Amino acid sequence: MSSANLHPMLNVAIKAARAAGAIINRAALDVEAVRISQKQVNDFVTEIDQASEQTIIETLLTAYPGHGIWAEESGREHGARDSEFVWIIDPLDGTTNFIHGFPVYCVSIALAVQGKVEQAVIYDPTRNDLFTATKGRGAYLNERRIRVSKRTQLKECLISTGFPFRPGDNFQNYLQMMSDVMQRTAGLRRPGAAALDLAYVAAGFTDGFFETGLSPWDVAAGSLLVTEAGGLVGNFTGESNFLEQKECLAGNPRIYGQLVPLLAKHSRFAGVADKMQVAEAAARAHAAEAPAADGSEPTETPAAAPVRKLTRVRSKAAGDAPQA
């Protein structure tokens, strides 16, 4: 779709994303000179994140001063607080990649109207790839219409994900999820930028994506790209109201439908029985890895005994002959 046919608000978002991308590309020429600070363990922010965000906000509010802003670094301190139009911004998704010179990162900008995402831009400055979507008008990569993949069998699929990296993350649960998915697919990838992961699902480069611990600015733009490209996006149990639930699952419809049963039991919103099953599996894995009290190597933990189905037995009436 040519720029002349784009929604005016999408055009402004593209202008903001390209301006931020120019800042990022200049900094990437000498990334070792970039000042870096740490929000928490393994969670970095750079002066480039902040400069990129400032440029995006200034561009958006110059065009739409009555709109609200919800950005990764500055939160909601800019723009109108009570507007039904809210721009959701990740100025540099994949900061850890960026500071290592690993060229997988992007700018993500979405516009939510009354809580529903209606415009989306994801810009990859390293490749000059521009992903755009307007609700009801399809998804595009560099003005070319994109669609999710047509694969129908999980064993043929390439799935992307993100690993837990913060203190307190449930590593055992994530290892179980990875195990469930890896042995059923053609491959699992961890590029390191969730917004770009979702854009790649929309373009059909990968067939599905899942990750926990994500914030709205990580997934807002990408989620619209996926749905406008014919895919599905939700939480691990398949519910579509996922934006602030810190878990995201996306894929083409057939693959999404096969991933939900694999991941639902790992969801924060899973039922009690499913959560108990996951907890028991994690405990068995932990016991198998832990050294014995005498310092010897751990022995293999026997498989759990099969659960016996309880049935009600009718009492024998008086006079019945005893069974042999």
From TrEMBL:
Mg(2+) 2 binds at residues 90, 93. Mg(2+) 1 binds at residues 72, 92, 218. Residues 284-324 are annotated as: Disordered. GO terms for biological process: inositol metabolic process; phosphatidylinositol phosphate biosynthetic process; signal transduction. Its EC number is 3.1.3.25. Transmembrane segments: none annotated. Residues 284-293 have a biased composition (Low complexity). Keywords: Hydrolase, Magnesium, Metal-binding. It comes from the Bacteria. Coiled coil: none annotated. Its cofactor is Mg(2+). It catalyses: a myo-inositol phosphate + H2O = myo-inositol + phosphate. CDD domains: IMPase. GO terms for molecular function: inositol monophosphate 1-phosphatase activity; metal ion binding. SUPFAM superfamilies: Carbohydrate phosphatase. Belongs to the inositol monophosphatase superfamily. This is Inositol-1-monophosphatase.
